[in-house]
């Protein structure tokens, strides 16, 4: 689509580096057992302190986190938390990753992560995911795993804390810890899945990372041990090699179990003791594998990576010997001081990037360790094509100016205000931190040796340091930490080799360092210019939707306000602003009417640039989010009760006094070349850029226009499209969270309520709501310029919109059933794809428009096989019902499949009422779209009533293979192995001829 395809454009992210089993296996969980039957473990506090790294630190761990270590060496951390209530998360972390692999083991750490779901001593192959789905965990969303260079993690998000769910989750993690079987047949089936993942990741960005690592850290395993592994090892490694790696490194001493949720801590500790205490390392604890060395004396070299789709980025690095910094109060003070200094440099670089004709698109500077081998000082600079030298010179000059002249008092004050607000808000909101947030914090502690401390202690330490900090102290800290970029290593990613090659890059940087730098000018603080919008509006209607607890307000000027006060997230308010219009303002004649809304905020306000606003709002919880949705202008954002009034002033200012500054247009245009260069660089890009046109028969509103069209756009075009809507369009505002209702009403009354009269209703936009699904059922073959063995197969079946809620429910459940089937048949049985996906989309904007989609990445040689597999699934489900009196045949929808599709949905719905985000999706339009309220009220009732026969009837209506649009993305110049047209039925052929 013209607008959405460009909505995500932004400067590139800039960063350098980040056998025999147990004699007595774990028994299956007994749902009727109670943890009180198991004695609590004896706690050795000294051993626990040593295991968790705080024995010699002056930092005290958060007492709410129950830390422990079993006699076998396995660490655990448990924390009670009720956000959201009745749920929990479990994380099993193994301290081993790809850098531990021998040459003939490259990829096995990641492969073993996959094998955990493919058969253990007590769980047959293919059953682990099914067990979790029956308990309400969705594969991928609630059941996941990862492998990095130095760690493997298994993640379970429990939708409830029933004894059966908790015990089963612990049981399965225990099976993962020591009971994976590695049956040769299971390994062989999984090889295709791993190869699919390897194939999917193989692109220009991955090759650039490999080039960067090979150049900067060539003598380390970081350069040679990508977690995805080596293709030949993945294809041939025997089961014995898997077992050897697994038994060496999956040991208690390398493992940490984290449990956070609405659980009894003492009972959970007893369960962990009972489940994991009998785990032992068969061959002892294997030592860490040396990662190699970084030659800190290796300097003054350059490397160039070229690719026609790559963003131009220069990475400048100097290495220095690694310095150990054990976690302590002194270490944290030093890190905080350095962070303030780096943030100021980052603000300066960001200010330059936002200027007219800026020399670079984005830049960052920092210092970190490289897996404790060495420390690295890094400057990253992203530029427009061919402007690397200009950008590098400007960024280096700004960094050198900071290192020489330091910082101003105003810059320090801005950062201190931001940090103060962050620490204070953390204290105010600590009681409602989410399970995920707390678990991630503990996982970071487990991985990096950081001690989880309380928000109060963090604020206390900051407050004690804050008043003593001066610009001179920050400058000293920056100089000591960053060091120098004299004669650095430079890696340049660019589309075309620069003149002079690598030597030219080195010379250019050396010459840049000889230029003089000027002392940065102090900037005067500004006051926000938009605090008075006239007399506050008068409330003319005030009522409450009693069963949902939503208060609805209407002001005299027709602005609507909906309030839902909750205690799910302390000190946090979610805000929605919906102004009539959005993408419905686009037409066939002007399909790009709202395309520039994705940079609307970058244009600032009439009185303030975007950079001014960053300084003005230092220390305030204000979001600058104002864009365009399908039928609204505005956005969704978060603030605090204290800053809600200011947030409403900001949103009102963008509504009434947008800046439309030209520097935003220039930045937008600088992104276009890279965006268009990437369109066909991957199979995903080829489909993503063309699918809108395919499904809409080239309707320009949903088709990506040529680059020249977007290059000609100006803010005058946007203003002409949205100006009337910003001035007169209907407005509906939603607030959900922790706020005082009367203060919130007053804040809206003084801002949006004070504006001139608005239209009372949102417009219908009748013609603009017309969206056609193509009648052309001819298969489409698209071509990409990525890897030759990469391909994508996608099917689209037209369905309907979301007006009939029961039909919408059935379509969603059918898509979940398809997800289970394609995962089982394409991933598990064929081993042909890493992540096949199915979904249902039903539009609330375009009457009659919707589709069911199945999409999967495959090897080029498997395109036909996977295409046939999807067709077979659809044909089986959509086959005509047996005639009366015919021999009975098994239903293509097994009862267990339906249950596994339905249960995660029901659990998700049950938990959705426990978080503000789900409520905001209802509150945002509670007055203008009241039908949404009835759907919300129904909860999971509608899903619970759908049976297999209904889904089969639905499948016969929509899923006939001949109704689908088949799209294949193949390497340029190739076709599928079978002539697609020959495989169509007459129905499809007739549709094509039309």
Architecture overview:
With 994 residues, the chain is of the alpha+beta class. The protein is built from 32 helices and 23 strands. The longest helix has 25 residues, at 329-353.
In short:
With 994 residues, the protein is an alpha+beta fold. It is 40% helix and 16% strand.
What descriptive keywords fit this protein?
single chain; 994 residues; alpha+beta; seven-stranded mixed beta sheet; 32 helices; 23 strands; 40% helix; globular; disordered N terminus; disordered C terminus
* Strand order in the largest sheet: 12-13-14-18-15-17-16
Give the number of helices.
32
**Gap from first CA to last CA:** 24 Å
Largest sheet: 7 strands, mixed
- Number of DSSP E strands: 23
| Dominant shape | globular
C-alpha-based Rg, rounded: 29 Å
Average pLDDT reading: 92
List segments where confidence is low: pLDDT < 50 over at least 5 consecutive residues.
Answer: 1-38, 977-994
What helical percentage do the residues reach?
A: 25-40%
Give the class from helix and strand content and strand pairing: alpha+beta
Strand content: 15-25%
């Amino acid at each position: 689509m013209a607008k959405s395809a460009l909505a995500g454009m932004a400067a590139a992210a800039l960063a350098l580096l980040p056998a025999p089993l147990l004699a007595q296996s774990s028994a299956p969980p007994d749902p009727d057992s109670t943890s009180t039957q198991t004695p609590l473990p004896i706690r050795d506090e000294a051993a626990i302190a040593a295991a968790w790294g705080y024995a010699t630190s002056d930092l005290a761990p958060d007492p709410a986190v129950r830390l422990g270590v079993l006699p076998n060496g396995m660490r655990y951390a448990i924390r009670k938390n009720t956000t959201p209530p009745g749920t929990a998360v479990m994380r099993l972390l193994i301290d081993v990753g790809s850098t531990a692999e021998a040459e003939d083991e490259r990829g096995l750490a990641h492969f073993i992560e996959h094998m955990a779901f493919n058969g253990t001593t007590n769980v047959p192959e293919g059953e682990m995911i099914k067990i979790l789905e029956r308990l309400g965990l969705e594969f991928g969303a609630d059941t996941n795993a990862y492998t990095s260079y130095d760690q493997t993690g298994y993640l379970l998000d429990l939708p409830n804390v029933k004894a059966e769910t908790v015990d089963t989750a612990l049981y399965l993690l225990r099976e993962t810890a020591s009971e994976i079987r590695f049956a040769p047949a299971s390994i062989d089936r999984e090889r295709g899945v791993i190869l699919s993942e390897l194939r999917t990741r193989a692109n220009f960005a991955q090759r650039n990372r490999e080039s960067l690592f090979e150049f900067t850290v060539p003598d380390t395993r970081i350069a040679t041990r990508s977690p995805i592994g080596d293709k030949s090892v993945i294809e041939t490694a025997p089961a014995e090699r898997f077992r050897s790696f697994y038994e060496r490194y999956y040991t208690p001493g390398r493992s940490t179990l984290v449990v956070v949720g609405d659980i009894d801590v003492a009972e959970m500790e007893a369960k962990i003791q009972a489940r994991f205490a009998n785990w032992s390392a068969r061959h002892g604890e294997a030592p860490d594998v040396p990662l190699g060395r970084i030659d800190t004396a290796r300097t003054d070299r350059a490397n160039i990576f070229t690719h026609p789709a790559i963003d131009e980025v220069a990475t400048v690095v100097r290495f220095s010997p690694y310095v150990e910094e054990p976690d302590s109060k002194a270490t944290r003070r030093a890190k905080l001081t350095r962070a303030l200094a780096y943030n100021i440099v980052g603000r300066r670089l960001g200010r330059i990037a936002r200027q007219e004709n800026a020399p670079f698109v984005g830049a960052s500077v920092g210092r970190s360790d490289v897996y404790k081998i060495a420390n690295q000082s890094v400057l990253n600079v992203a530029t427009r094509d061919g402007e690397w030298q200009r950008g590098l010179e400007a960024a280096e000059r700004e960094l050198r100016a900071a290192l020489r002249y330091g910082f101003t008092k105003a810059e320090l004050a801005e950062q201190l205000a931001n940090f103060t607000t962050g620490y204070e808000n953390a204290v105010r909101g600590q009681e409602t931190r989410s399970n995920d947030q707390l678990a991630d914090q503990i996982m970071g502690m487990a991985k990096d040796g950081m001690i989880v401390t309380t928000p109060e202690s963090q604020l206390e330490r900051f407050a004690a340091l804050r008043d003593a900090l001066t610009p001179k102290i920050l400058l000293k800290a920056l100089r000591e930490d960053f060091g120098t970029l004299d004669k650095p290593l430079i890696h340049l990613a660019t589309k075309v080799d620069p003149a002079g090659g690598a030597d030219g890059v080195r010379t250019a940087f050396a010459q840049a360092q000889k230029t003089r730098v000027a002392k940065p000018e102090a900037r005067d603080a500004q006051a926000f210019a938009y605090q008075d919008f006239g007399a506050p509006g008068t409330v003319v209607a005030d009522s409450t939707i009693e069963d949902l607890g939503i208060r609805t307000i209407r002001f005299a000027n027709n602005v609507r306000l909906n309030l839902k006060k909750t205690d799910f997230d302390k000190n946090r308010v979610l805000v929605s602003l919906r102004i009539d219009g959005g993408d419905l303002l686009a037409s066939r004649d002007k399909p790009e009417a709202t395309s520039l809304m994705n940079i609307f905020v970058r244009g600032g306000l009439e009185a303030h640039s975007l950079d001014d606003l960053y300084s003005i709002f230092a220390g305030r919880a204000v979001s600058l989010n104002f864009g365009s949705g399908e039928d609204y202008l505005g956005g969704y954002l978060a603030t605090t009760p204290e800053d809600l009034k200011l947030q409403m002033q900001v949103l009102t200012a963008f509504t009434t006094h947008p800046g439309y500054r030209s520097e935003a247009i220039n930045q937008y245009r600088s992104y276009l070349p890279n965006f268009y260069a990437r369109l066909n660089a991957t199979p995903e890009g080829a489909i993503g850029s063309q699918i809108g046109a395919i499904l809409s028969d080239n309707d320009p509103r949903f088709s990506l226009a040529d680059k020249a069209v977007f290059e000609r756009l100006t803010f005058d075009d946007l203003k002409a499209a949205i100006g009337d809507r910003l001035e007169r369009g209907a407005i509906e505002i939603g607030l959900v969270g922790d706020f005082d209702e009367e203060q919130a009403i007053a804040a809206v009354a003084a801002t949006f309520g004070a504006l001139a009269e608005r239209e009372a209703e949102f417009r219908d936009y009748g013609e603009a709501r017309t969206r056609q699904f193509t009648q052309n059922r001819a298969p489409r073959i698209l071509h990409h310029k990525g890897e030759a063995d990469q391909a994508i197969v996608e099917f689209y079946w037209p369905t309907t919109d979301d007006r009939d809620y029961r039909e919408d429910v059935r379509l969603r459940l059918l898509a979940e059933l398809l997800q289970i089937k394609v995962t089982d048949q394409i991933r598990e049985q064929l081993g042909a794809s890493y992540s096949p996906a199915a979904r249902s989309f039903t539009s609330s904007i375009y009457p009659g428009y919707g589709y069911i989609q199945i999409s999967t990445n495959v090897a080029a040689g498997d395109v036909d096989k996977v295409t046939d597999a999807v067709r077979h699934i659809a044909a089986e489900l959509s086959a005509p019902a047996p005639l009366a009196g015919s021999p009975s045949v098994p239903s293509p929808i097994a009862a267990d499949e339906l249950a596994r599709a339905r249960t995660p949905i029901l659990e998700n719905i049950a938990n959705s009422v426990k978080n503000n985000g789900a409520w905001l999706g209802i509150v945002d339009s509670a007055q203008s779209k009241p039908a949404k309220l009835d759907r919300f009220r129904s909860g999971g009732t509608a899903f619970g009533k759908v049976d297999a026969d209904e889904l089969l009837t639905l499948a016969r209506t929509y899923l006939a293979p001949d109704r689908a649009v088949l799209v294949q993305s193949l390497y340029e110049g190739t076709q599928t192995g079978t002539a697609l047209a020959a495989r169509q039925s007459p129905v499809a052929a007739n549709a094509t001829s039309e």
